[in-house]
DNA sequence: TGATATAAAGAGACCGGTCTCATGACATAT
DNA sequence: ATATGTCATGAGACCGGTCTCTTTATATCA
C-alpha cells in the first residue's frame, strides 16, 4: 500500500524552500553549497531538507553546470583481468578527484566502440578513456576532440590523433622478455597473440592496427634480429581468440619440422589458453616447452611451475590514465604526451636453460 | 588552434531547427523520433542535423522524460572474478533491454555502499542492483524503495526488506560440497571465509550479517551434523582477508592437535590464498590436505591438481538479476521473490579419498 | 540625521530536451 | 457555401537544478 500508492514525486528544492518558508534561490544556495546564507536560514533549510529526505537531482545539476562528474571508460573486455585491474586504477584516481566512472564494453569491435563513445558523449561525460580497438578508424575519436571532451587513450596509442595516451612500454617489454629467452639458450621462439588472424601469417608489421600488439611484435622481432636469428616472423601466430582456436594454433605450431622451444604469450588470457593447451598435449613446462606470459594474473603463480611473466603494473597504468584525464578535465596546461609505464620481467619457473 | 579556439558550444535542437528553417518543436520531433512529421520536413531536418553533427544531450532528455536509461550496480569488489563475471551478465541483460550500466564499488564497506547508493539515486538511475555488505543496516536500501526506484539484491538476500533477491543456492552448495567431502572419508572439515573475523570464532550462526556467508556456514554445519560429526563449528575460520591473514589462519588451523583433513574455501580469492598458503607450508593437495573452492575461477583448472569447485554459474546469476531488474523497471507485475540459482559441484583432483 | 556601503534574500532566466495545446491548411461531408 | 474533421506545424510550458541581477534590510560614516 505505502509503496505502490505513493509513486511519490521526488522532493525538489522548491519543496524544501516551501517547507522552510524561504525562496527557491535561497534553499538552492544552502542545498547546493554556494553563495552566502545566514546561519539561521541555513539551519532552517537543512532541517527542512532532512525532514523531507531531499536528495539532489544530479541530472538537473549537471544540466545547468554543464559538468556531470562522470568519466566514461570504454574497454575491450571487462572480464579480462587486465582491464578489470586497470578499471580499478582508473576508478581510484577518479574517485580521489571527485569523479565517478561509467564503464562500457566494446568487445574489441569498432562499431560497438563507436556507439559506446557516442552514448557516453550523449550522457555528457566530463572526459573519456578509450582503449581503441583499431588505430585506423578514428572518426568517432576525432569527434570526441571536436566536441571538446577530454580524451585519454589507454593501452594503445594513435600518434596521428594528437591526444594523450597511457600504455605499457610494450616494445621494450617484448624485447626484454625475448632477450631473456635467447639468453637462456633458446633459438626458435614463437609469439602467440589473440589478435584476429590475417591470412597466411604476419608479413607487414607496420600494418598491425593495434599499437600494443604491433610494438610487442616489433620488440620480439628486434630481439631475434639483433641475435642474428633467421626468419624472425616465422613463428608469430595470431588468432588465439578462444581455447579451441588456441589449441589449433598450438598443434600447428608444435608440429612444425623444427618446433619452437619457447613461447611468448601476448596476454594472460592467451597465456592461460596456451598453458592449458600444452597440458592437454601432454607437454610439460619448461622441460618440453618454455613460456613467458604478459600480465601478473592470478593463475600464473599457482601453476607448476609458476609462470615467468612480464608485469605490466596495470593498476598503475589505469591510475595514471585516470589522473591524466582528471588533469585534462581541470584544464591543467600540459603538452600532449604518450606516457609509457615501464614493465618488469618476473622470473619464475617456466623457462628452461638449454643448449649449453 | 582549431580545437582550443572553439570551445564549441554543442549543437542543440534549436540550432538544427534554425538551420532547417523549422520550429524547435518540429526538429525535436524528428530528432527524438516521436510525433508526426511529413517526409519532406523530416529529410530537411535530418540533413541539417547531419551537417551540424548534432548529438542529442541525453541529460536533457532524461530530465524531461524522467528516465535515464541507466542501471546502477553496487558491487563488493570489481576486481573479484565473481563480481566482474556477474557484471558481465548484468550488462548483457541490460544492453539487451536498452539500458546502460554504471558500476560502483563498495569495498564491502557499509558507508561506501551507502554513499554509492545515494549517488546513483542522485543520478536518477532507472533501477539499482546492490550487493549489500551487511544485512542489518538497511536505511539506505529502504530509502531506495521509498524513492520508487526498483531494486534487486544480488548474491545476498534480506528477507525483511520485501525486495527481489538473486543469489546462488548457497546453503545447498555448501551442503553438497561438504557431503561430498564426508563421502570421501573426511571427518575433520574446515570452512575458511574472508568475512571479517569476530573474536573467538563462530558461536552464533544466525547472527552472521551476510546471508551468503550464513547460508554456506549453515549448509556446512548441517552436513556435519547429519553425519553425526562432533563439534561442527570447531573448524570454521573467518578473517582470511588477504594473503598474510590467510596464512596466519592456515598455520593456526593446521597446527591443531587433530588438524582438519579437508578445507572448504568460501570464494575463489580465499581459495587461491589457501592454495598458496598450503604450497608455502610445503603441503601437497590432496595428499596432505584436500580442498574445495567456490567459483570456477581461472586458476582452479591449471593447478596441480586441478581444484574441485562449486560452480555458481555467476554469469547466469548476473544475467538473471539484470533481467529481473529490467522487468521491475518496466513494471511487469511480479511477486517479490528470492530467486536461487542452483550450483553444481565440479569434481576435479583436489580431494583425496581417505580412511578406507 | 541622511548618505552610502554591504550583506542577505528574492525573482526569474537559463540549460536542452519533451510534450501539450493552439493554430492553420486542406479535404470531405452536409 | 458552410461546417466538420484530420494532419502537419508552431508556440510555449515544463523538468530541477544554477546563477545573475534586483530588491530589501542593516551597518557605517560624515
TrEMBL record, chains A, B:
Gene Ontology molecular-function annotations: DNA-binding transcription factor activity; transcription cis-regulatory region binding
InterPro entries reported in the protein's UniProt record: HTH_LacI (IPR000843), Lambda_DNA-bd_dom_sf (IPR010982), Peripla_BP/Lac1_sug-bd_dom (IPR001761), Peripla_BP_I (IPR028082)
Residues in HTH lacI-type domain copies: 11-65
PROSITE patterns: HTH_LACI_1, HTH_LACI_2
Record keywords, A-Z: DNA-binding, Transcription, Transcription regulation
Xref: Pfam families: LacI, Peripla_BP_1
Protein name (record): Substrate-binding domain-containing protein
Organism in which the protein naturally occurs: Rhizobium phaseoli
